[in-house]
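Help wanted!
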Amino acid sequence: SAVISQKPSRDICQRGTSLTIQCQVDSQVTMMFWYRQQPGQSLTLIATANQGSEATYESGFVIDKFPISRPNLTFSTLTVSNMSPEDSSIYLCSVVTVLSYEQYFGPGTRLTVT
Amino acid sequence: TQLLEQSPQFLSIQEGENLTVYCNSSSVFSSLQWYRQEPGEGPVLLVTVVTGGEVKKLKRLTFQFGDARKDSSLHITAAQPGDTGLYLCAGGYGKLTFGQGTILTVHP
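Answered by r_m:
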């Protein structure tokens, strides 16, 4: 298994500002991802965080809005830029462990944009 | 685009009853995972199934992966209030496709 921590756990931000969310894993993992869960909804994949290179974004998500870094195997950041109330969601880091199909999620960052 | 249809969306039952949640797709998935999520927390992995026809048991929970790897079910026997939560099925490897979720409420 993997233990994932995220910072901050929640934040309230003003429209037009940016927030960077950190994800730290306690062991080396093969893949890291960022998901979004809008209020009352299921989870949607934002992007795959690639170590040492640009993230791979899903349709509807762009780098200018959601820049992602992954400097090493156990750490990644997601920035939500130029925020609007529509960005109010839970943002979740997810990892796939080495030699396993198992995929784990962090506790999430609850973002409210006013 | 792979889609997962999860049903029912809401389930409200009394303690001690049995229930089944279904997850169906027209696409084949390499693996399928079931999660339980409580308010304010991230999804917690319950089980991963990878082989068609596979059945896994976790105490009172039984998970089944269809022979063609297009569908799955979660059966809970003698539900308890502690089983209350959002249950999510997710197909794929890494880039997961999620079902809409089932909100289960078990009343004492």
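OP: Thanks! One thing I noticed: Chain B has a mean pLDDT of 94.
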